[in-house]
Amino acid sequence: MGHISAQANPQSLGFTEKLKSWLSWSWTYVCFVWFGMVLIMVYVLWSPLKLQETLTSASVFLNTLTPKFYVALTGTSSLISGLILIFEWWYFRKYGTSFIEQVSVSHLRPLLGGVESSSTTGLFSSVNGEAEPRPSVSECKVWRNPLNLFRGAEYNRYTWVTGKEPLTYYDMNLSAQDHQTFFTGDTQQLRPEDAVMQKAWRERNPQARIRAAYQAIEINHEQTCSAGSVIFSKKSYVLLAEEEATTITEAERLFKKALTIGKEGFAYTVVLIYSGKDMNLLVYIKRRLAMCARKLGRIKEAVKMMRDLMKEFPLLGMLNIHENLLEALLELQAYADVQAVLAKYDDISLPKSATICYTSALLKARAVSDKFSPEAASRRGLSTAEMNAVEAIHRAVEFNPHVPKYLLEMKSLILPPEHILKRGDSEAVAYAFFHLQHWKRAEGALNLLHCTWEGTFRIIPYPLEKGHLFYPYPGCTETADRELLPSFHEVSVYPKKELPFFILFTAGLCSFTAMLAMLTHQFPELMGVFAKAFFSTLFAPLGFFADKMESFMPSSFWHQLTQI
């Protein structure tokens, strides 16, 4: 039976595809056939249905209408089209597409035999234009920001000063899921402190999270000391360091307490952590301590901690600790060490990021930017080093085209989110927030970027269809970035979208009907003459067609046809 159904499925699928192709082909000509049939039916039924008398009475009725009726008609049309225009504009600004166009493509196009857009989602065009399979990894996967700020010491201070929330609920919800996944042990039995800490991460109110962390600490103190209670005390102090600490110094103190707690008299706890059960917790604490040292100016200490962490846990490359290391080395101006880190991580087999691509471009631009002059380069041409720098900038801009506007201060910066979308505006904000100072420190680097970054778009004229050095630019970044970035930030969109046709159409319709309403109100007699002349001209071809049909066909034929 399985073989029979397997053989029958291709036949049924083939019949379905043929039916769809036939419907698609037929819809191309059905409009012309339908229009011709309507004309023939109108002519055939002209006498039996007394259409001439109906048309005469309708014209008499229209002649008796006052200009106020036409003013009301055109005014109502203008109002309705204006409301549609407002809704279309709001929908386009919020979702980046036209509502009418989306409904047409999603619901009407399949009925008319159109090709479904999902059939091409698995392909992309390479440089030579051939279709190749796209990677199975989701293009719009959201990643944890390696340089994310501290909520209590940085994000909350911004809220106190400006009254604005720098983090979206979607971003904070992702962080709560990360903490629950990242810090949950592999024990199947849920202890009371486990439930308390899971609830603490899920709480939306910061004060509720802090109270839950203190509650977990009290539960651990009441119980007999064990490895599990010590670990959950660490997690409680991690939450307090992230949420309650109002300064980086206080956050560092709480992280150090979370790192050292349980070592007195519980040496086996350290062994337990290193065995893998709660290794994530240890890595998180040490990484945040390194970030605290970097923010407090102890940069060499931070670099040593990050190097030790990468050496101690080499398999945790997905945490992107090397991006923290690159930023700290750039602050030390240790460009040789930066190049060594890039040589290891800027590999074709490893995933890229804005930090990797733009740091590589910065190093190459720094070598030539101090003597670079656009006028001199246009006269003599680019040298080999300058060409390498320009190509590195083009490579970086192709990967993330949103970054240059922030580096060149053409757009205002905001606090980076806790999660970023690679190649999106959120990643550009996070990179520029921490690396703008490094570009400014390299003399002439921003000038070279300003002169060359827009040339990338001439290399890739159709970024959503073809890529040059990377895959085609994903088309879903705008939607994800709007979820990650706060509402007061204007999300950067690439490629820049043109206004949909229906917005332009409704705008023209609204303006035209409003103009007709105003002219009809001001000049009723003149507009009446104009309307009569317009409709008589409009229906002239129909009368001409009817006369030709009467002269071409014998009258007896039409009489017998109407009798049938």
TrEMBL record:
The keyword Transmembrane helix applies. It comes from the Eukaryota. Coiled coil: none annotated. Gene3D superfamilies: Tetratricopeptide repeat domain. GO terms for cellular component: membrane. The chain crosses the membrane at residues 27-49, 69-92, 499-520, 526-546. Keywords: Membrane, Transmembrane, Transmembrane helix. CDD domains: ST7 (cd11557). Its main location: membrane. It is found in: Membrane. It is a multi-pass membrane protein. Belongs to the ST7 family. PANTHER family: SUPPRESSION OF TUMORIGENICITY 7, SUPPRESSOR OF TUMORIGENICITY 7 PROTEIN-LIKE. This is Suppression of tumorigenicity 7 like.
